[in-house]
Amino acid sequence: MEPDRFGMPLRVRYVECDMQGRVFNGHYLTWVDMALNEAVRHIFGDYQTLIDGGIDFVVAAAELQFRRPAHFDDDLMVGVGFDPLGRTSLRSTYRIRRGEELIAEAAMIHVCVDAATLVKQPWPEWFRERIGQG
Known about the structure:
The structure is a single chain. The protein is α+β, with helices and mostly antiparallel strands. 25% of the residues lie in helices and 37% in strands. The protein is built from 3 helices and 5 strands; from the N terminus they run E-H-H-E-E-E-E-H. Strands 1-3-4-5-2 form a 5-stranded antiparallel beta sheet. Strand 3 and strand 4 form a beta hairpin. The longest helix is centred in the N-terminal third of the chain and has 19 residues. 25% of the residues are buried. The mean pLDDT is 94. Pfam families: 4HBT (PF03061).
């Protein structure tokens, strides 16, 4: 799924900027996590639906490439997409844009775990169906 299948708008807050007036690098992954949660809400209703269905997911890897700096008060859009599911893994992709200008790209790999024990497990069929329809 293309990284712009779902989008989360945000405005850069002053507190997210470093002494050079640019967004501090750590905030980009926070935005990616926020956008993932919004995509999950769009597809499943809310995150509790996953927990009630017996699953959760944990981050196994993250990557981030910076293309241009973002600054205080910029209006950004975090686009979210999903690659085809693995047996236990989900790779999500992100594009952070200011208008048409690409600011950063990211990818995260999450692993499905049992919601109670946090033991790795395959994605259930209901999750596969819903994420594919997303």
